[in-house]
C-alpha cells in the first residue's frame, strides 16, 4: 500500500506522526475532535462568523 502513495503524501504522514509523538492522549483527542467539528460544521461556523 505504501508503494502506491505519492512521496509528498508520505512526507505529510511522516511529519504528522512526528508532531504527535510526544503529545498526550488527551491532546491528540482534543485535536481530533476539533478537526471533526471544523470539518462537519463548516457551514454553521461560517454563519456564526457573520
Structural account:
The chain is mostly helical and 50 residues long. The protein has a domain at 25-49. Helices cover 76% and strands 0% of the residues. The protein contains 3 helices and no strands. It has helices spanning 7-20, 25-40, 42-49. The longest helix is centred in the middle third of the chain and has 16 residues, at 25-40. The radius of gyration is 15 Å and the shape is flat. The N and C termini lie far apart (44 Å). The mean pLDDT is 87.
List SSEs in N-to-C order.
Answer: HHH
Percent of residues in beta strands: under 5%
The biggest sheet, with number of strands, parallel, antiparallel or mixed sense and barrel status, is:
none
| Residues in helix, % | over 70%
Descriptive terms for the model:
single chain; 0% strand; mainly alpha; 50 residues
Give me a quick take on this structure.
With 50 residues, the protein is mostly helical. The chain has a domain of 25 residues.
Amino acid at each position: 500500500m505504501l508503494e502506491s502513495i505519492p512521496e509528498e503524501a508520505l512526507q505529510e504522514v511522516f511529519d504528522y506522526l512526528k508532531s504527535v509523538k510526544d503529545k498526550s492522549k488527551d491532546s491528540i483527542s482534543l485535536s481530533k475532535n476539533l478537526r471533526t467539528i471544523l470539518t462537519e460544521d463548516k457551514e454553521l461556523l461560517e454563519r456564526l462568523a457573520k
